[in-house]
Design brief:
- The chain folds into three domains: 118 residues, 3-Layer(aba) Sandwich (Oxidized Rhodanese, domain 1); 160 residues, Rhodanese-like domain (Oxidized Rhodanese, domain 1, 3-Layer(aba) Sandwich); 127 residues, Oxidized Rhodanese, domain 1.
- Helix content is 29%, strand content 14%.
- It contains 15 helices and 17 strands.
- By secondary structure, the protein is an alpha/beta fold.
- It has a five-stranded parallel beta sheet with strand order 1-6-5-2-4.
Length: 431
């Protein structure tokens, strides 16, 4: 006998979501889940507590791995909702194929749930700073994407001293941004205010400019002489953090970088675009010094009950089996730092990204952080080896709207080079 899901009314949906065993699955694009109104919703975002599983992913996802990561289990009742009954049914059929038995559909999200202010919804606090390919396409083509003030824009293709990465193909209209223009390769810290000012002016960026940053993920390997040259989208988060620190008020990240652009069917350009320089940034630099802290502040956070220094490194780095970098000799960790678990190594952030390189949903990241005491009530400073992974974690927290977040700029590179600083190795007793 053919299985048919029950189609819930809104009243039934309200009753079901109070059931702690019930799993609500949002199959709309990740940008809609985050908060963008793609179908004229009265309120943007998702049903509070829902898990994101975009229907698009079913074309290429590893079902077992993704469902397990998201805690979507066949032994619990499932409610699927999207923008249409047809799309919900396609997901239901997939779940039936995996022996999910108790699957229901809710198909009044736009016309009833989002339209009623009293029904619980949630969204990424700064969702508008995490843009999607169609948004950028509309910006370049018509100049009128949603939630854009029209103050002019610059699209930056991030790369680490690898102009060939830009020449290989970039978003139409994008200019190349070498990360070395924003950070010093001697210390790997952000450059001086005067140096940052000159770079931003040369790029045509003022305080009011909308700046969209992105990069290419090209499967960096530690055996490569310079793995960072293949981690352009990770570098884009570093650029974004420094731009915020400098004072650019509208910094946006293309979610998923070039991968998401190509997945949307858009073509890349090989045109060499030259920026139009400007003369005045419009404010002092840095406008937000609190976004980046140095060694003294890092030590204060280690000693504070109201702060945490978070190591966004791999487990092998954290326990001292590897330094993580060709140019860092010492191994170990900063004693007292909390393990923020980037993923596999210094050039990957699997635990902060979905398998298509989009940012992992904020609820998933925040839940993992809360388990080790990383909460928005504290001042949180993220660090890694030299700032890239720490910047991506920082951007996660900043996009969530956390009020006191920073990057510890010096990271393990600075800490380990000072013989007066203590170093810990091995597995911490508290874990």
């Amino acid at each position: 006998m053919e299985k048919k899901p029950h189609v819930l009314s809104t009243n039934e949906m309200v009753e079901r979501i109070t059931d702690s065993d019930c799993i609500v699955v949002d199959i709309r694009p990740i940008e809609a889940y985050n908060g963008w109104k793609l179908r004229g919703e009265t309120r943007g975002g998702h049903i509070k507590g829902a898990k994101s599983l975009p229907l698009l992913w079913t074309k290429y996802m590893d079902w077992v791995e993704v469902l397990d990561e998201k805690g979507i289990s066949s032994d619990k009742p499932i409610i699927v909702y999207g923008y249409s009954t047809d799309s919900a049914m396609r997901m239901v059929d997939r779940l039936y194929g995996l022996d999910f038995g108790n699957v229901n559909i809710y198909d009044h999200f736009v016309d009833e749930w989002a339209a009623r202010p009293g029904l619980p919804m949630d969204c990424l606090a700064r969702y508008r700073q995490l843009v999607y390919p169609e948004w950028v396409k509309r910006l370049v083509t018509n100049g009128d994407p949603p939630e854009y003030e029209g103050n002019g824009y610059v699209i930056c293709h991030s790369h680490y001293d690898n102009h060939n990465d830009y020449e290989e193909g970039h978003l139409p209209g994008a200019v190349p941004l070498n990360t070395l223009l924003l950070e010093d390769p001697v210390t790997w810290n952000r450059r001086s205010p005067d140096e940052l000012r000159r770079t931003l002016l040369d790029l045509g960026i003022t305080r009011d400019t909308t700046v969209i940053v992105y990069g290419r993920f090209s499967y960096p390997k530690f055996e490569d002489p310079f793995p960072g040259k293949n981690a352009g989208h990770l570098g884009a988060f570093r650029c974004a953090a420094i731009l915020l620190y400098a004072g650019v008020e509208d910094v946006r990240i293309l979610n998923g970088g070039i991968t998401s652009w190509k997945n949307s069917g858009y073509n890349l350009s090989t045109e060499d675009v030259r920026p139009t320089p400007v003369n005045d940034f419009g404010s002092e630099i840095p406008a937000h010094p609190e976004y980046i802290v140095d060694l003294p502040e890092a030590k204060e956070l280690l000693a504070s009950e109201n702060g945490e220094l978070v190591s966004v490194r791999s487990w092998e780095e954290f326990i001292g089996n590897t330094s993580g970098y060709h140019y860092i000799e010492k191994k170990g960790r900063i004693p007292g730092a909390v393990f923020g678990n980037c993923g596999s190594d210094a050039y990957h952030m699997e635990n902060y990204r979905n398998f298509d390189y989009t940012m992992r949903e904020s609820q998933e990241v925040a839940k993992k952080w809360a388990e080790v005491g990383i909460v928005p009530e504290k001042h949180i400073a993220f660090y890694c080896g030299t700032g890239w992974r720490g910047s991506e974690a920082f951007m996660n927290a900043w996009l969530m709207g956390w009020p006191k977040v920073s990057v510890y700029d010096g990271g393990w590179f600075e800490w380990s080079n000072d013989p007066s600083n203590p170093i810990a190795t091995g597995e911490p007793e508290s874990l």
